[in-house]
Amino acid sequence: MLTDEYRYKILKELQQDPDISQRELAKRLDISLGKANFCLKALIEKGLIKAENFKNSINKMGYLYLLTPKGIEEKVSLTQRFLQRKLKEHEALEKEIEQLRQEVKT
Predict the structure, then answer these.
(1) pTM confidence score
(2) CA 96 to each of CA 88, 91, 92, 100, 101: distance values in angstroms, whole numbers, following the listed order
């Protein structure tokens, strides 16, 4: 299953580096090459990205991964949800740190 977190991270990487290889994407996300391939196929099927062969590439296996308008909208939505989740995690950590500081003082 393709989680929101991986969907967000993949769309972010592809937007920043559309000609990234699947191998490099897997390395950056610390996932297997097979999982990267699976995720890209799922995003293509959902219409969030499209893959085009490089026209003048020596490496004919090279693709250009482009976010579709639907993919851009999805990335914005995922970014907002990801940010909210991380802010909640941050607040919880701040509370936990403060409690630990209080324990150390006593």
Answers:
(1) 0.76
(2) 12, 9, 6, 6, 9
Closest CA to 65 of 81, 41, 90, 92: 41
The model's pLDDT over 1-49, given as tens digits with 9 standing for 90+, comes to: 688 888 999 999 999 999 899 999 999 999 999 999 999 999 999 999 9
Helix (H) or strand (E) holding 30: none
d(C-alpha 79, C-alpha 40), whole Å:
18
CA contacts within 13 A on the Cβ side of 17: 10
Q: Are 44 and 59 in contact (CB under 8 A)?
A: no
Alpha helices in the chain (DSSP H): 4-16, 22-29, 33-45, 69-105
CA distances from 60 to 53, 54, 65 (A): 7, 7, 14
